[in-house]
Amino acid sequence: MREAGQIVAKAKAAVEHAIQPGTETRELDALAESEIRGLGAIPSFKGYRAMAAVPFPATICTSINEELVHGIPGNRKLKDGDIISVDVGAIYEGLHGDSAFTLGVGDIDPEAERLIAATRESLNRGISKVRAGARIGDISAAVQTFAEKQGYAVVTQYVGHGIGFEMHEEPQVPNYGEAGRGPLIRKGMALAIEPMLNVGTRDTKQMHDGWTVVTADGSLCAHFEHTVVITERGAEVTTRLNGNRA
Ligand code: MG
Ligand code: MG
């Protein structure tokens, strides 16, 4: 899990450095794919089907502005003032890492900046609750309480998840709920925690490409995700670059 997580972290860093006005999202995708394959891993989203009619065609998801998750990279060029969410998954020796971030392109609106900071912080608040003996609801409540206090809506239609030999395993990790409720967190578990916050309503809708999910009201949204494992020594974030806090 650790190796898979570090490969995801390196792919994210490569993508992050390339995010600037004029870059096409398919260039970001190509960078991530070569990084992941170069490190001996397999992109986990490529060909992923779940319940979709068409398999996901790319290595990463790139979702811009009102696009929340599962955006398909293509020839769209990033513009100054856009915000982009990038989701990266990789499989190394059968085990998964899954992580996402939102970043501004060039100069962005202070409101967009505030949304991104709040979403990142809501993830950190969730992660801070991860320990053996705690409940999934402790994570959910920490995310929801912080996000709503900042004035944002928490998306309920998409949730975090257990992760390991499969990208999506039990238990679900909702970004809303009550502390002290839900499945017990135990040593040996691995969780992908992934708050998604909207400026407007919590509702989302799916576009006709079968993948891209947008906010129902077209408002701005952000998404951060880390994969966390629960070991003897406590919670360890596998998808943060070693020695890096971001
Ligand atoms: Mg993800
Ligand atoms: Mg995930």
In short:
This protein has helices spanning 2-18, 25-38, 110-127, 136-149, and strands at 42-43, 60-64, 67-69, 83-92, 95-104, 153-154, 160-162, 169-173, 190-193, 196-198, 204-206, 213-215, 221-223, 226-231, 234-237. With 246 residues, it is α+β, with helices and mostly antiparallel strands.
What does this structure look like?
There is one protein chain. The chain has 246 residues and is α+β, with helices and mostly antiparallel strands. The chain has a single domain (2-237), classed as Creatinase/methionine aminopeptidase superfamily (Creatine Amidinohydrolase, Alpha-Beta Complex), CATH 3.90.230. It has helices spanning 2-18, 25-38, 110-127, 136-149, and strands at residues 42-43, 60-64, 67-69, 83-92, 95-104, 153-154, 160-162, 169-173, 190-193, 196-198, 204-206, 213-215, 221-223, 226-231, 234-237. The protein has a 5-stranded antiparallel β-sheet. A hairpin with a 6-residue loop joins strand 7 (160-162) and strand 8 (169-173). Helix 1 (2-18) packs antiparallel against helix 2 (25-38) and helix 3 (110-127) runs antiparallel to helix 4 (136-149). The longest helix has 18 residues, at 110-127. The radius of gyration is 17 Å and the shape is globular. The structure holds magnesium ion (2 copies). The site of one magnesium ion has 5 residues, from loops.
